[in-house]
Amino acid sequence: MGDLSVNLCGIKLDNPVIPASGTFGYGYEYAQLYDINCLGTFSFKGTTLEMRAGNPLPRIAETNAGMLNAVGLQNPGVDAVIREELPKLAKVFHKPVIANVSGFSVAEYAEVCRRLDAVPEVGWLEVNISCPNVHGGGMSFGTDPKAAAEVTRAVKEAAAKPVIVKLSPNVTDIAEIAGACEDAGADALSLINTVMALRIDLKTKRPVLANTTGGLSGPAVFPLALRMVWQVYEAVSIPIIGLGGIQSAEDVIEMMLAGATAVQLGAANLVNPFACRDIIDALPETMERYGIKKLSELTGGAH
Amino acid sequence: MQQGIFTVAENRPLNDKVSRLVLRGDASAVKRPGQFVQLRLPDLYLRRPFSVCDRDADSFTILFEMVGKGTEKLRAMKTGDELDVLTGLGNGFDLNAGGDMPLLIGGGTGLSPLYWLAKELMKRQKQPIALLGFNTVSDVFYEDAFRTLGVETVVSTVDGSYGMKGFVTEAMNREHSGFYACGPEAMMKAVCACTDKPGQLSLDKRMGCGFGACMGCTVKTNNGLKRICKDGPVLSSGEVIWEI
Question: Which entry of A111, A157, B76, B172 is 20 to 30 Å from A200 by CA?
């Protein structure tokens, strides 16, 4: 059997498959279905300093090969996450986990990271500067290289654990933002967050989502994500986590060939809760079919 | 929650819009009336949620109305076709919340989860009374099914073409210990305004996953935020904050 392990910022993952933030809660819903310790790791629900109720409904819309969401970072706030959710997570998942962090100011990002950095279960901090569904925060930091660098620097000062900056595809030049984050000290990058999108209901003649726009994910965005991972791989030397529309072991390999060290799956989990487990199970046979002995050697192989 | 492949055992139109679909497979995760299933349909990305209308050891039944792409595909399914289904989703009704003589108030296909509920209440020697509301005579279905259970059943049509004339709420003026309701939100809101007895409501919201992971269907209630798919779809009447 081939070697599925990869190294993400000095921490070894048994395989590169990681459920993406916002599609896996804190793990325990899925732990009722299968042993989630088969995962490389997972990124838990985006966390802010204060509790957030999220956006009004509808928050979900569908499209031919994917979905739009405008959840709006619903979460109980960092202290409740640490106090209530992470102990439950620790019971069902026994590997280092990725803490996903959002904020509305540089200071908030730094403070949430500082608090989560102290939690032993947390292996990495993933800083979301790319949420398209909140106003005055999130994506506004991810569309300007200076702001992205400022958040990265502040978070790096506040936390000792590796910092992954999650990038938005809703920019003209993602490589420029990626470079700014690398220069500011980011240990890794994850891309892409969802693509800002719209659906209109013909019966009401109004947008389907209460937030008007939402983030598109699912197989519709896979080639777009692949292209951006390719561009960022050419621009930086830190590891990249590739995500966007992955739904098979073949997609994982393709994403790694474009430049990803590891991958995340989001929408796929919502449609098939076993998606990540099924892909991990399918990887050895798929590797054999394409003559791959060591998955980690694929990264950037198509360049 | 459980995932499984189910086979269409029956797909029968009940009228121009509403059908009854029986799916055969391991239904053991479907435990309580009020729970729902998520069906994966050909060429549609997201699953579609449906309340369970009835179940036995190796099958369950749903009732659905053609309202869009998903239900059109479902109406065309043939006996022997296979479907990927997540079963055992949601909390379900509390069989004691409505007391010994509860009203079961269903609007259109909203009556679906109330049928299995009626069956379970009868087993427990309770005396449910079904109030079924429709727009017009050609919409009426499942009246006989409720009667066959031995449940007193009152049908109303808005245009008066069958049964009592008017909204289902007009049939509520009778002795009852509590209620269970499922139907359009405007109906459920009106139902709550017509009684001071305790009740349970089955809500329907646009969902993503259906099992509590995506936060796509969270609503504010008087008991804090609740995910309709996981903390619901059944909420008590006192905790619902109406948005209409």
Answer: B76
